[in-house]
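**Protein record**
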Amino acid sequence: MNSPSLSVVQAPARVISLADAKKYMRVEYDDDDDLIETLISSAVENVDGATGWLGRALGLQSLALRASHFPGQGYDCARGFDAHWHSSDRRRHHLHEIRLPCPPVLSVTSIVYADPNGFLVSYDPALYALLPEIDARFVVPAFGTVWPQTRVQPGAVVITYVAGYAPPDADQSCAIPTDIKQALLLMVGSAYDNRSDKAPITGLAESILTKKQVWI
């Protein structure tokens, strides 16, 4: 039986514009626009989201977390959501907490599960809550309730949620942190100077991003 898995439902929105990159690199002509766009995509893909090195969602995106059952049902935790909460980084234990990877998490779109008879059920949003924590979000049952029983099978529970920072032209209070953006621009600039079509995480950019890395 599979461990919990995370996938992208809707691809991340752009967090660095072509204009931002060109301004940073002091490029005033358009001949290399395609190359710069490629390098921006490469830098962000190396860092962002479900498969990114940083452990964070950068551009606004929709993610889906799947497991074989809800926590607290008495099954092997590696198969269900129990594997996504850790006593080592919590001041309290809660058997029914579900940690959502790739912060910042903005909202839960839906929770769908297969009941013991195999029928898909859309869980009532009034029966769960999203709790904010530093660099994490936990979904818990509403007060006085527990997660429902499920059929124990791969993908029996699917939590779809929205994560990431606001795009560059949105509310700046929700914008990508300045140091993360600076590291991405460093990656793009270094690759551009070397006339590469890839923007790996190296040097100063790695040093900056290490401080922002989320461990789950």
